[in-house]
Structure formats: structure tokens, C-alpha cells
Write a structure and sequence with these properties.
0% of the residues lie in helices and 49% in strands.
């Protein structure tokens, strides 16, 4: 059983930066695809970025050029560097993983393991 624990959320002004981390326990993430999702109040969960075993990654259009997803397999940790933040990025951010090395997708149903979420609030 894989457990995911996010940290790094907080409150920041528009234009600021945050770095989210997601530590995995129970398995090596080396052969996992891992992703970040977010959910704002009253909205559906949205895929933000995914990175697969080869290092390939995709982003949702609204964050491309502002967010960078990366992973450290030695530490079994996933990261999301968020720059030039906008108020509309305010949401709970979730880390997710699936035991498939090439799941280059932002579909929530594809991911079997989820963290508890960390709140990101961007004020104008």
C-alpha cells in the first residue's frame, strides 16, 4: 500500500511562488506515474501536471509555463514548483500515483493512490 503525504501549501499573494512536496511511503516511485491535481470549492477535481517514469510530463494549459513538476526517485518525493501564482489557482492540491510507468494522463480515475491534500490560497 502506497501512502502519499503532501506539504508546502499556504497563503501567498498573486505573483508569488510556492513549492509543494509529496513524500511516498510503502513503495519506490521509480516505476510509478505521479501527478498533481487540484480542487476548488464547488468545482470538479482537475489534473494539473503528471510525470512518468521516463521523465516525460504534461501540464494543464492554465499552468503551463508557470508550474514545474519534478521527482526525486532517491527520496521517493514528487514536487510542484508554482510560480507567478494567480488567485484562480486557489484550491486544495492533491498528489496522486499509479503503479504504471507510462501513464501520461491527467484523468483522476487512472490514479489509485491519493494524498490528503494541501491548501493553496492566492490572494489578489
Amino acid at each position: 500500500q502506497v501512502q502519499l503525504l503532501e506539504c508546502g501549501g499556504g497563503s501567498v499573494q498573486a505573483g508569488g511562488s510556492l513549492r509543494l512536496s509529496c513524500a511516498a511511503a510503502g513503495a519506490s516511485i521509480r516505476e510509478f506515474s505521479m501527478a498533481w491535481f487540484r480542487q476548488a470549492p464547488g468545482k470538479e477535481r482537475e489534473g494539473v501536471a503528471v510525470i512518468v517514469s521516463s521523465g516525460s510530463r504534461i501540464y494543464v494549459d492554465s499552468v503551463r509555463g508557470r508550474f514545474t513538476v519534478s521527482r526525486d526517485t532517491a527520496k521517493d518525493t514528487l514536487y510542484l514548483q508554482m510560480d507567478s501564482l494567480k488567485p484562480e489557482y486557489t484550491a486544495t492540491y492533491y498528489c496522486a500515483a499509479v503503479a504504471r510507468p507510462s501513464a501520461l494522463s491527467l484523468l483522476p480515475a487512472l490514479f489509485a493512490y491519493w494524498g490528503q491534500g494541501t491548501q493553496v490560497t492566492v490572494s489578489s
